[in-house]
Queue: 2 jobs
Job 1
Amino acid sequence: MTANPVATPTIVLVGHGMVGQRFLEALAERGLTATHRVVVLCEEPRPAYDRVQLTSYFSGRTPEELSLTDREFIADHGIELHVGDPAVAVDREARRVTARSGLVVGYDTLVLATGSYPFVPPVPNKDAEGCFVYRTIEDLLAIEAYAKSRATTGAVVGGGLLGLEAAGALKGLGLTSHIVEFAPRLMPVQVDDGGGAALLRTIEDMGLSVHTGVGTQEIVVGEDGAVTGMRLSDGSELATDLVVFSAGVRPRDQLARDCGLAVGERGGVSVDERCRTVTDPRVFAIGECALAADGRVYGLVAPGYEQAETAAATLAEDEASFTGADLSTKLKLLGVDVASFGDAHGTAEDCLDVVYSDSRAGLYKKLVIGRDGTLLGGILVGDAEAYGTLRALTGSVPPVSPESLVLPAGAGAGAQLGPSALPDDAVVCSCHNVSKGTIRGAVTEHRCTTVPEVKKCTKAGTGCGSCVKVLGQLVTTELEASGVEVDKGLCGCFAQTREELYEIVRALRIASYRELLDRYGREDARGGEGCETCKPAVASVIASLAPAIGASGYVLDGEQAALQDTNDHFLANLQKNGSYSVVPRIPGGEIAPEKLIVIGEIARDFGLYTKITGGQRIDMFGARVEQLPLIWARLVDAGFESGHAYGKSLRTVKSCVGSTWCRYGVQDSVRMAIDLELRYRGLRSPHKLKSAVSGCARECAEAQSKDFGVIATSSGWNLYVGGNGGATPRHADLLAQDLSDAELVRLIDRFLMFYIRTADRLERTSTWLERIPGGLDHVRDVVVHDSLGICDELERLMAAHVAHYRDEWADTINDPEKLARFVSFVNAPDTPDPVVAFVPERDQIKPDLPLLSLGIRPADTVLEGSAQR
Amino acid sequence: MTLAPETTDLKVQLRLADSWYTVCDLHRLEPGRGVAALLPDGRQVALFRDRADRLYGIDNRDPFVGAAVLSRGLTGTHQGRTFVASPLLKQRFDLETGQCLDDESVRVATYGVRAR
Ligand code: SRM
Ligand SMILES: Cc1cc2nc3c(=O)[nH]c(=O)nc-3n(C[C@H](O)[C@H](O)[C@H](O)COP(=O)(O)OP(=O)(O)OC[C@H]3O[C@@H](n4cnc5c(N)ncnc54)[C@H](O)[C@@H]3O)c2cc1C
Ligand code: SF4
Ligand code: FES
């Protein structure tokens, strides 16, 4: 075969990895794909994908979702992409590249983006069956298949960034996992000894075994030639069925060497500041295969992207250069917060460290500060919250003292440095090199008003994702600053916050939503209908203050009924097909057999789907609206009451079995859980409230994940507050220790009422505690030390709630007027909604979803049995 | 339409192709809350009454999820127009035009309503 005649100038790209793809995008953006023929030789069986997020394959991301490119991009720009066909030779004289398939392409410009290969130490049997590397999707598929079919234990050679990711992945595959690291600490490149110690603790707590300071001497194989273990340098042998080598990477520069291009002493194709090889002006090298002008080979994606931009700019005859980049990293391993940025090891002359270390809590934070106060770099282990901001501040003098930046919130200082303190040229997203100024511009000039819009507009946040938090803060600040009113008001009807409305309702004893809207609403909302946001919020405020302001505590009385969200309105939870679920209260999760039988009978008689909930009670699904009163009549009769699964109010107080039965229990956790659940049931609050009581420090009830959690001690109870499961889990903070029963209840009374008074709408205690100025310390001052002098009042409010509590369902089924609401159709109360239908599944029912998409049944079947026309 | 205050035994009627169909007593409609009505041909209508006693009728089916539940949503005012927010995924629908305020491409049917 011969080279194609070169009509238009041809760019040949060897390697379609992350940097290669970025280079193609840069060519397209600069219009070069229109003026050039672009040919890509891609070795892997698939086009470029997100290698940085490779490990997310094990948490369910498919190879397709990892892809960085699509057919349209390639087609629209006329790019000739040859998948699965690597370059095997370059003839620089004749300017042509030969691919494995025999394809020969002539070039005017050749760009090498061949990346790296994983380094495998030359130990005996390193290629045995069961040995893997961790670089490509194919590697992961192979590891997964092997782990599932024939391994129970896995070991990773190398305790660096990738090694830890790989070890986490092996653990996720269900293997007992080991990490073997030659250096005396984990992540030796990024963290120092102190950070390594904190990291070690966290990793071990995750159930991974770590062996530091030992090398791998030999892979031990069984008779079938497959791995059975590893011999280590201390003479010991580690039994394992699978080995992943993650001992660093080396630039893939063989192709370059073979055609006579200069490479560095330790590998990497030597290039200048414009990413041109020093040997041949027609050849460029970018990404991990390049030895940059500053003498470094970069193993991170962000510098590679910059090189891709530089090479494309050079080809377009634009000004650009790559002279070096930042080596910041944040570990993506689930559950481990580790980040390092800038000059993390303090190599600059005369620099100083500021260190906060708490090895008990697995916390370690170090900042490296120059003589003049400039932040040079740092290491964060255990809490990398501030990473985004600190990384961007690197190179400038932070506006607050360095000490206050490392101290944890609540430990004295804890200055919360927001991204507003950043200078405009601070790089917020280092994956895509996006500065704060660019992000601001996206808001002010390109009129982006949400984070997803800004991501799309600037690419920021679309790489490793570690900057997204700061991005969100910036967008809000910017919107506020540019006058795009980021209204603090509750909604379009009220300019006040929920807290302010609470104070108005309380002080002026306003028990009517209409009155509140007409007097205190925004000008143009007065006299209107209000909206779906403020109606339930105000209804909740009125309900939680009901006894104090002389309103009815019953949420379906008078005007209040019209304000409730649909769930509260029907005292049940709406499901996707228009049916409801029913959850009776089972305080503390304790239930007598007789009552269990009643639930079973009711569910059977009404044909309901039953499920044990995550809250230690039983949910019955599939009740039609007109069945709710019938079901509840039987439940109330058997002594059940509403479980408020529908309300922003107390859900469950979970309990463990405690000292009555458990050999470890030190207090009666079941009794306490029941007492608390009965005390706070029905309490309307800004968001739902959950609680749990554990009988000893083993914590079987998971109290530390609750809004208020109680753990027994030998001398009383410890109270934890602000815990949360859900999407953003938060461990609760210890509020007070060794409380008596009475002290515990009094403190919870105060805590809950203070929360109800000051929280925003739909703000759980966890986010509230994080948001309010002073945080936990302030709350403790208020509710323990009575610093605001309001504790008496808080207690009085709670006492009034407890005294006035009534079961909503008992009240409802005894009131014919309220019952009139529970009909399918106002004109045909006995005709069930024909769209609510079910099909069988696993011996129970589930909604007939296909019917939902049709939306309607033929008329003749519908009106059958209709009592009224 | 607007009503004289405190008129009692009025009936709510829906306009069908060529007639008015009587649904229920007016007092069954609480301001700010809806009810569902079943038409002879099987269609379902969500009926509402606002603070100013204006009446509205729209198709009861939530076009996003498919369930017939719009009558169970909360009403509100947006730029002077009355809407209902679906109780499922909270999309809002203009009660007069049926236009979804959160998705231009979606609109539900509306019905003429009167009380007499
Ligand atoms: C039924 C149940 C799942 C189950 O089958 O086990 C459930 C079901 C729902 N949960 Fe849940 N959650 C259930 C336990 C939990 C738990 C576990 C627990 O309570 O121990 C959690 C995590 C703990 C926590 O809340 O901190 C949980 C975190 C959530 C969240 C996220 C809250 C957060 O702060 O991030 C929501 C969404 C929300 O409330 O905004 C939610 C919302 C919902 C809703 C209300 C969603 C909806 O609007 O339809 C579901 C309706 C239930 C229904 O129709 O009856 N559910 N939900 C559980 C009922 C427990 C009970 O007896 O009351
Ligand atoms: C598990 C994992 C996690 C990572 N996490 C991070 C992180 O959090 N942050 C970060 O910055 N970086 C991370 N990295 C590193 C990042 O993926 C690389 O820096 C980036 O992929 C480099 O891009 P590249 O295009 O230079 O190389 P690659 O993406 O490796 O692409 C090179 C491509 O060239 C192909 N190729 C090689 N030789 C030839 C040939 N002769 N002909 C044709 N094709 C050839 C290869 O098959 C490969 O597809 C991680 C890497 C891994 C493996
Ligand atoms: S928390 Fe303690 S007392 Fe309760 S069940 Fe667990 S071990 Fe037993
Ligand atoms: S820093 Fe990685 S996506 Fe922004």
Note: Residues A 429-431, 460-467 surround FE2/S2 (inorganic) cluster (ligand 4) (CB under 6 Å).
Job 2
Amino acid sequence: MSCLQAAVSAVEHTSVVIDTKERSRDRGVGADVSRPDGVPKVQGRFAFSSDLWADNFLWGHTLRSPHPSALISNIDIGPALAFGGVHAVLLASDVPGQLNFGLDHQDQPVLAADQVRYVGEPVALVAAEHPDIARRAAEAIVVNYEVIAPLTDSEAASEAPPMHPDGNVIRRLGIRHGDLSLTGEVVVEGSYEVGMQDQAFMGPESGMALPEEDGGVELFVSTQWLHVDRSQIAACLGLAEEQVRITLAGVGGAFGAREDLSLQVHLCLLAQHTQKPVKMVYSRDESFLGHVHRHPAKMCYRHHADRQGHLIKVEARIVLDGGAYASSSAAVIANASCFAAGPYKVLAAEVEGLAVRTNNPPCGAMRGFGAVQTCFAHEAQMDKLAAALGMDPVELRLLNALAPGDRLITGQVITGAFPVAEVIRQCAQAPSPVLPPTNDYRDLPGGSGRTTKAEDTVRGTGFAVGFKNLMFSEGFDDYSSAACRVSNGVATITCACAEVGQGFVTLAQQIARTELSVDEVILAPAQTVTSKSAGSTSASRQTWMSGGAVQAACRKVREQILSDVGAKWDVSPDGLVLRDGMVVCIDGQRQASLAQLTAEQDYEADVVFRHVPTQTLDENGQGNIHVSFACAAHRVIVDVDPDLGLVRVRDITTAQDVGRILNPTQALGQIEGGIAQGVGLALMEEIVLDDGLVRNNSFTDYVIPTTLDMPEVTIAAFIEEPEPGAPYGAKGIGEPPTISSSAAVAAAVRDATGLSLERIPIRPYDIALADH
Amino acid sequence: MTNVIVARSVDEALATLSEAPDITILAGGTDLMVEINRGLRQLNSVIALAQVPELHRWSIGEDRLMIGAGVTYTTMLNTKLAQAAPALAQAARTVGSPPIRNAGTLGGNLGTASPAGDTLPVLAALNASIVLDGPSGERCLSLEEFMVGVKRTCLAPGELIKAVEMDHLSGGQEYLKIGPRNAMVISMAGVALAVDRKAKQVRCALGAVAANIPRASEAEAWVGERINWDSGTGVDSVLAQEFGQRMAAESSPIDDHRSTAAYRRHAVGVLAARALQRVFSEGTNGYV
């Protein structure tokens, strides 16, 4: 088997043949179709990017900086080259093209040349015949560092000497909306902090690059956006984009962490240099250093309201720690700032957003993308305001809920569906679950540690609402592309949409069945060779964007088929429909099998799908910069052991604005998973930093919720108000569950303890050792 | 390539160890494999003990229990050992997930000798003797003698841990542990408490709050004198609170990435008070 065949065989799982016994109408849009990769994943048969294999391949390893800030005076690769079985040791000077990469602007070195700016920054690469040899050889490289005191305080960063040629301010933006001289009769203030969360996907960064005869390179990798990887890789390798051929390998979770490059350029460099296939798999420890995290935030807020509770003005200052390199920080701070007031009507707003550079690990995209941090703050503020007004917190939120026709603090008028009041009402009105006192340790704070009995606990309830944009904003040319071919009654969909767990593999097939009335749908592997960009699998955008592209491609094919049949039968195509695999004339006189028709001739269409264009922000932070929005509400019940500061979340009830549900089980999966990440941020998930050093880059010490930390999730309602412009009216579902769930958990713990708890994650000592 | 020898008996294992004293001992692998996967340890040769029947034996005597070094957490949790040493079962339950508990062993927990090792405070409270065998024959050590520091033991070259003997007590026992989430965690603070009704003693040991596994001997003595041993009463919340404070005073925790010294000391106090009240106020002390 050739290298190429071997590598291709590892990704064949993305082509899935559907059982033709089931009729299309049962497996189309809205049906509970199960994921084609679900059973293989559960049974351990799914090929992840770490399972790639080829003949005579080499293993790559990355030497990383142990220092958060240092100058490199000299690197001696001699000791590494002396190892038997080492085929290449590469440094920055071996990068043939552009030396830097980056999503927004190219400020991050492929390999550090003369300076390192964070712990874990790649310095050198080794390719060897065995992973242990590669690792040991990398460790033998002698790097002389001249250590510099790191800049780790985000609030001091903008005034500190620049630690990067581009300066320490990645983006500063101001939002000035309405009459800023307004003040409220009731004013509440707070300072809030969010720690650095990690995406903690299960499948570490991994992939394989193979040299190509034309001087190009083929790459199999887990990523969120094949084409943006391709353009960055090509630039760094000095190749034409067409010479970099990327195929998506099995992805084990992403959550934003695979939007930036990690090992892509490194793998390709090593493959080019050795002219052999090269594979890399990050260890878990390395993975925590090898991708961006959620931005830690420091936020100061002042809310003004009148005596009736109407929001008058929101003032906020938000500082995000972007770490050493820009990544998507500029877009994250825009989101954090634009959504700083929450999904509420407010007459005036003044928001200062600042994303800065420090010697902490780089931060970028993570589920919720800036909205999570400010939701924690604005929802704490809403609770404070309700207390100051003597109002019910849910009533206060309902009173101020945004609705279509209202303006955001960016001046944008909301169009389309945006049922904020409805998600609040449905979530708040859902019956509370009956949770009698228990002495089953599994339902108590402390869990299996048996620290706590029912009499040691106090109960609290919290409520929070959040929202964010769907798709890319601020004038970005955001599109997806898809092709559809129908042959012998079988539809083949080709799209470069990266399946990272969101469910496109299922939805693409459901859409094709609904549009074409076919049973069998093949989804071709996602690749850059024949596909145009599908855009990023992020921003809750792929169901809308790539789903929209697939729908449009299928409709174009359908039109061609009906037009041809109409011409043959001498009837208008308007009088023809596709039903149960047949072209049927609505007069009932004639019908023809789609399989037959498409055996004689293939029908194909290739489309590019765009959402409506957006604007950029003006100097006052005003503009129609977003396409669409989605909101959700969460109500959380917790039991807290105040003496030990331990928490057991007992129930989370949610209502979410979904547009239309295309696959109920997948929708539920997104909501449960998103809530688990929200619970994690509220109670345990944090990259612990000590002067720029990462103290817990392992799953031993970076803990994520287990089944004893997650409660039952109760869906109070999916609010199905179809969104204009979206395929079938469906909105993205993935992010809203993460946005307000953390805030609601924190609110419930505040309710139980009476503490202000202005920081997440809430640590046991924040409760147990608090000054009462 | 790593050379793996699968031992079939203690004698065979000892013979191999005497020939290659620097060989790595593999029991359940739940600590060793993590180190290997993290690149922290390179192996030349390994001796695997999972196939040694003698190490899997356990027995319940009237006064003492014997548990082979190869006995897994699952066995401590799911057999009559759980009634004979309830705190040991409770400690075993807090370790990892079911697959980890199926693999990890008592001997492995001792061999790793982490202050956060979950069974270790229980062994200390049960006056355990650790039975070692090696070139100079068998020897029995207390946990205090065996564990000489953080992840350091006095195991000599060529020696292996064969079994652990510990008291079979009639009184209540508790092991309470705090971690950064509700399951599958490394201990941030743990308290083992065992009542010896015959000797009229309360025995306590602490986990994850010192470089070793300290017995809180002053607090033990203090509380032992205040309990009415005939009626089993005398433990009210005031006494329990003070006992907790005395226990906390005997801990010497540190600040690290998992928690703070102040919280750990506080937690020891709360856990100890609760453990004391539970063993004297509740009818059953078995594993729930």
Note: Residues 283-288 of chain B have pLDDT under 50 and may be disordered.
